[in-house]
Amino acid sequence: MNEKAFEVFVSLSLLLGGLLTLVFRRRRNVLIGFRIGYTWHSERVWEKVNTFAGVFSIAYSLILFVLALYGISMNVFILIMVAFVVSEVLLGFWMARREYELEELSKEAPEKPPTAGESEVKNELGETSVKSYLLLQLGFLTFYLLLVALLWDRLPERVASHFNARGEPDSYSSRFWGMVGVPILAWLLPLVLTIPAKEPGFFARVTFYPKSLRAWCGFTTLLSGGMVFVFTLALLYNAGLLPSNAITYGAILFLGVILFAVYRLLTVRPDERI
C-alpha cells in the first residue's frame, strides 16, 4: 500500500467512525461513541457530545480525504490528523464535563462520578498518581531529544522519516522536522490521553471498559515509550548506526507490546494493581 492509498484508507475509516458516532448519538452503547464517565451517566450529555464528535469527525475526515487525493506528504498528513484527533478528545471531554455540571446544577445528577477525594479513587490509586506517569512520559521525550542533540552532526540534511514493511525508507523530510517535529507531535497524543485520567469522570462505567486508573495510565505510558523507541531506532538509522531492517523488527516488537497492553487494559480487574 503506497502513501496515497494509506492516507485515503485512514480518511475513509475516520469518516465511517464519524458517521457511526452520529447514528448512535441517541443510544448509549459499549462500542460506538464518545464514551467517558460523564456521557455514560447522562442521556442528554451523551447525545450532545456524540453529536459534536460525529460532526467534527466527519468534517476533518473529509478534509483529510481531500488532502490525500491532492497528494500531501505522509508526515504532514499525520500531523494534521493528530491535531484533529487531539482537538476532538480535548473539546469532547471539556464539553462532557461542562454539560454534566450544568445538569447537576439544575437537578441532582444520577450516579455522579466519584470526586478525586473519595475513597474509591484513593483505594485504586494508592500512592500512585497521574503525575508520575506524566513525568515518565516526559522522561522518554527528554532522553530522545538528548540523543538527537548528541547525534545531530551525524544526521544528513534530508532524513528517512517513513519506512515500508521491509524496513526500507520510502519517505524523506528535513532533519529538524523528521527527527524533532514529528516525534514530539506523536509523543503528545498519549500525553493528552493521560492528562484527563486524573478526572474520575473520564472513565465510562461499562463492563469491558478499564476501571483501573493504573491500567489506563500504564497503557498510555507504554504507548509513549513505544513511540519513542521506534523514533530512536529511526534516529540511529539516519545517523548510520543501525541497519534499516532494525526498524522493521522494532516496529513488530512495538505492535506486539501494544497488543498485549490492550489485552491487559480490557481484562484488568477493578482492584488489580498493574
From TrEMBL:
<keyword id="KW-0472">Membrane</keyword>
<protein>
    <submittedName>
        <fullName>Putative integral membrane protein</fullName>
    </submittedName>
</protein>
<feature type="domain" description="DUF1648">
    <location>
        <begin position="141"/>
        <end position="185"/>
    </location>
</feature>
<feature type="transmembrane region" description="Helical">
    <location>
        <begin position="176"/>
        <end position="195"/>
    </location>
</feature>
<feature type="transmembrane region" description="Helical">
    <location>
        <begin position="76"/>
        <end position="96"/>
    </location>
</feature>
<feature type="transmembrane region" description="Helical">
    <location>
        <begin position="246"/>
        <end position="266"/>
    </location>
</feature>
<feature type="transmembrane region" description="Helical">
    <location>
        <begin position="45"/>
        <end position="70"/>
    </location>
</feature>
<keyword id="KW-1133">Transmembrane helix</keyword>
<dbReference type="InterPro" id="IPR025962">
    <property type="entry name" value="SdpI/YhfL"/>
</dbReference>
<feature type="transmembrane region" description="Helical">
    <location>
        <begin position="132"/>
        <end position="152"/>
    </location>
</feature>
<dbReference type="Pfam" id="PF07853">
    <property type="entry name" value="DUF1648"/>
</dbReference>
<feature type="transmembrane region" description="Helical">
    <location>
        <begin position="6"/>
        <end position="24"/>
    </location>
</feature>
<keyword id="KW-0812">Transmembrane</keyword>
<dbReference type="InterPro" id="IPR012867">
    <property type="entry name" value="DUF1648"/>
</dbReference>
<feature type="transmembrane region" description="Helical">
    <location>
        <begin position="216"/>
        <end position="240"/>
    </location>
</feature>
<dbReference type="Pfam" id="PF13630">
    <property type="entry name" value="SdpI"/>
</dbReference>
